[in-house]
Design goal:
The structure is a single chain. The chain is globular, with a radius of gyration of 19 Å. The mean pLDDT is 92. The chain has an eight-stranded mixed beta sheet with strand order 3-4-2-1-5-6-8-7, sandwiched between helices. The protein is α/β, with parallel strands linked by helices and 327 residues long. The protein has eleven helices and eight strands. The protein has a single domain, classed as 3-Layer(aba) Sandwich (Rossmann fold).
Length: 327
């Protein structure tokens, strides 16, 4: 009975948060999707063949996931992709109990109209068909909760942040949330080539092809208004700096090579950091990491997430000496 009531609440909330007036029309969405998918498939084959992945950047546990998703992407990908078992199981947060806790906080964080715009902006009917509506609601609220918690820590709204660099972008939903919140700065996602191409399809369908670009080789700029998708296989060949570095569980679940590269690139010049991680999956020593960040930032905090046992946020902001060390 409790589960049935919770499911009814989710369905009601999903319809309330995705009103028709905020939804892109079906024909436009389907046309954008076809065009974006054709372009993304061609880009993926070009990047895969021209810039092989460096050794050590793919966790062995992910190799089978990549093979299965690659086959799906090249042969059968459609607008119900969130229902694909591998994508749903690895890129979509679906914990309903956690959603209840997150939603309780979000309702006090911003007005209902703002939440509605953040969750629904750019969406379309095919992307919300069937179970995808609930999946999008829970996952988007989860992403918005990360932003809300970081904003609470930094004591200032996030809309004015310059360039955001996100390591591991899932299917591109956090970038969508940032855009819908009113963030007008640059946005860059670093990921495996296959997932960059999935992100391209998703974001180009939502916002149009002019709003997003896959970098396919060295020497390409990253500092215009488009959301830029950077395959990790070309990352060491390009210049990339940002103001906020974000990684929600992706960096902590990556092999040490990815973390080492992030350190070598000095967190991509970030002036602030938002990390989500699980204590059992992280390629760093916690005391060492926090100690190094406290020499660089005015405030650093590691905060447990009560409803996700073993999971934490790490936040960093400010100049050393300006606000004192610690949380």
């Amino acid at each position: 009975m409790i589960r049935r009531i919770r499911d009814l609440r989710l369905r009601f909330r999903g319809h309330a948060m995705f009103p028709p007036l905020l939804i892109c029309d079906r024909k436009t969405a389907e046309r954008r999707f076809r065009d974006a998918l054709a372009r993304a498939r061609a880009s993926y084959l070009e990047i895969r063949d021209s810039f092989p992945l460096p050794k050590g950047f793919v966790h062995p546990a992910w190799e089978e996931n990549i093979r299965e998703v690659e086959s799906y992407f090249l042969d059968h990908f459609d607008m119900t992709f969130l229902n694909h078992p591998r994508i749903n199981g690895t890129m979509v947060f679906t914990d309903r109990s956690a959603h209840s806790a997150e939603w309780s906080f979000l309702k006090t964080w911003r007005p209902a109209d703002t939440l509605r715009q953040c969750l629904a902006g750019g969406m379309n009917a095919p992307f919300l068909a069937g179970r995808q509506r609930t999946a999008t609601l829970i996952n988007s609220a989860h992403h918005l909760y990360h932003i809300a918690q970081f904003e609470t820590f930094r004591r200032e709204t996030v809309e004015g942040i310059g360039t955001v660099v996100e390591f591991g972008g899932g299917y591109g939903n956090l970038a969508r949330i940032f855009r819908n919140l009113g963030h007008a700065g640059g946005y860059v996602i670093i990921d495996l080539p296959l997932f960059c191409c999935i992100q391209y399809v998703y974001l180009a369908t939502l916002f149009g092809s002019d709003a997003v670009r896959i970098l396919s080789g060295p020497g390409e700029g990253v500092f215009d208004d488009a959301i830029r998708l950077v395959p990790i296989s070309i990352l060491e060949r390009i210049r990339l700096e940002g103001d906020l570095f974000i990684s929600t569980w992706a960096l902590s679940e990556s092999p040490s090579a990815a973390y080492d590269l992030t350190l070598r690139r000095n967190w991509y010049g970030a002036r602030e950091i938002l990390l989500g991680f699980h204590e059992a999956w992280k390629p760093w020593d916690m005391d060492e990491l926090v100690g190094s960040l406290k020499t660089r930032f005015g405030r650093v905090a590691v905060e447990p997430i009560p409803f996700l046992p073993g999971s934490y946020y790490l936040f960093a902001t400010g100049q050393p000496g300006a606000e004192g060390l610690g949380g």
